[in-house]
Amino acid sequence: MGVDQTEPEVPEDAVGRRVSCGGERATVRYVGPVPPTAGLWLGVEWDDPGRGKHDGSHEGVQYFTCSHIKGGSFVRPAKASFGVDYLAAVRQVYQVDTEEVLSEEISISDKKLKWWCVEERSYESLPSVILSRCEVNGPGDDGEIKKTTPNVQWLDMSGTLLSCWEDVAAVTQQLERLEGLQLSNNRLRLTSDPSTHCQAFSNIKVLALNSCYLTWPQILHCAPMWPQLEDLCVEENNITELQRPEDVLQSLKSLSLSSNPLVQESVLSLSALPRLEQLNLSNTGLSVIRFDDAAPGAPTEMFPALKKLSLDRNNITEWCVVDELAKLRSLVQFSCRGNRLTSSDRNPKTANQILIAKLGRLVLLNSCEIQPEDRKGAELDYIKMFGEEWLKAGGRSQPSAQFISQHPRYQTLIDKYGAPEEGELKKPEPFALKNQLLKITFVFPDAGERKPIEKKLPATMEVQKVKGLLYRLLKVPVADLKLTYTSPKALSPAHHLLAPGGQVKEQRVSR
C-alpha cells in the first residue's frame, strides 16, 4: 500500500516539537516509517505516560526512547496538531468577544488580578492575554506581536505547544510591558546560552513554571534570563536536592517549591537569598530543619528577610523544629496545617497555643490573625503548662541546659508575666478511668424521707443512662424523673441541667 496522499505535511523540524493529539500533549521523538505498515508515523512521548503503550520500540526495533517505560506511542500525522502562532491563537480566543479578557481573572503564581474596563475595545488595549491550553507553538511573523498586542502586562501560556525557551523569548521580547508570565504544564527544551535572552524577559517579575518536569539545576541554568524576577512558582516538578543560587535569583522575594520531593538537608541552600520574604515548602516531605549557627533562643543569620513560611502537609512531629523556626528574625506568618505536632492532651487548640507561645513574633498562624488577647492567653497557658517541669529543672535559680533547649522562650515569658505559682501549674493527669469519674450525690427535695445516694459516674455518661441507673435504684419510671445538677464550683447560685451526651447546660437563678 502506498502512502496516503491526504496525509498533512510534517514540519522539517518536527523531532522535538510539541503536538496535541486528542487533547493530550506530547513531544515528537521520531518521524518515519514503522515496518511492516506503510506510510509515515510520528513517534511521540506523552506528557501523561499513562496515555502511552511502549518505550519507543516496535517488534524488536528501538525507534526512540522515553523516560517512562510505557510513555510512547506511534500516531499518524493526521492525528497530531503542531499548533498555531501566538496571534492566530489570540484571534481564536478573543474574536467573538474582545471584552472577555477585560473582565477575566488571570492567575499567575498565587496572585489573582482582575482587570478593569478599558475604553478602547481592541487587541492593542488588552492588558492581559490568557492562552492557557491553547495550541500556541511560537511567535509567528517578526514584529507582528509588538504591533498587535503591545500593552500586555500579564500573559498565560500554560499547557501550550511551545517547545523551547527560544520560542518563549521570541514572543516575550515583543511585549515590552510584560511583568507576569504563566508557563506551567509545558515541556521546554533548555537554551544553551540563557544570558542571550535577558532582554526578552527583562521586565518579568512574576513567573510560574508548575508541572514542567524541571530539576533545580535546570532552573538555575535558566535563571540568568530573569534578572528582575521577584516571584517564582515551581510547584510539582522534579526538584530534589537544592543548590545555592550563585549570582542568580538575587532579587527573588517569593519562592514556592510546594509538592516537590526535596532533600531536606539542602533547604538551607536557599538561606542566603537576601530579599526572600515568602517561602512555600508545603508537601515536600520535610521533617527536620536546623539553624546550627545560632544557640537556642538566639537569632540565625540565615533567611534574613523571611516573613512568611508555609510548611503544610509535611512530616513534622517534633516541637524542636518549631524552636528552630523561632530563630528566624523576620518570621511573622507561619502555616503548618496537616503535620503531626501534638500536645500532651491531644487537643489541636492546645497545639496552636504552644505554636503561638514558641513563635513570639507571629501575626498570622495558619492564615488566622493572632489577636493580642489570644497571644497573652497562649503565653500564660504555656507558662503554666510547663511550669512544673521548669521548677524540677531548677527554674527559680537557673534552669538546666536541657530545659532551655526545649523551651527557649520560657525565660522571656517569665520576664514578661512573672514566674508561675505552685497552685497555677497545670499538672497532666494520667489518662485512667478513675480520673475521669465524677462524684455525684443524688438528693430528693420532694421526698424528704429518702437519704442522699452517692455514686461515682464517668464524666461522659449520658443523661439517659443516668436515668436508667436511677430507675434500677429507685423503681421510679424514667418518664417521671426530672433532674437538675448543682455545681459546688459555681461562684454564684446556679442550677445545671444535664443534657444528652454528657453536656452541661447552665441556667442562672436570680436571688
From TrEMBL:
Q: Which GO terms describe its cellular component?
A: cytoplasm
Q: Which Pfam families match?
A: CAP_GLY (PF01302)
Work out whether the entry's keyword set contains Iron-sulfur. Answer: no
Record domain CAP-Gly: where: 32-76
For this UniProt record, the keywords arranged alphabetically read as follows: Chaperone, Cytoplasm, Leucine-rich repeat, Repeat
| PROSITE patterns referenced in this protein's UniProt entry, alphabetically | CAP_GLY_1, CAP_GLY_2
Recorded superkingdom: Eukaryota
Q: Where in the cell is it found?
A: Cytoplasm
InterPro entries, A to Z: CAP-Gly_dom_sf, CAP-Gly_domain, LRR_dom_sf, SLRP, Ubiquitin-like_domsf, Ubl_TBCE
Alphabetical list of SUPFAM superfamilies matching this protein: Cap-Gly domain (SSF74924), L domain-like (SSF52058), Ubiquitin-like (SSF54236)
What's this protein's family per the entry? Belongs to the TBCE family.
What is this protein identified as? Answer: Tubulin-specific chaperone E
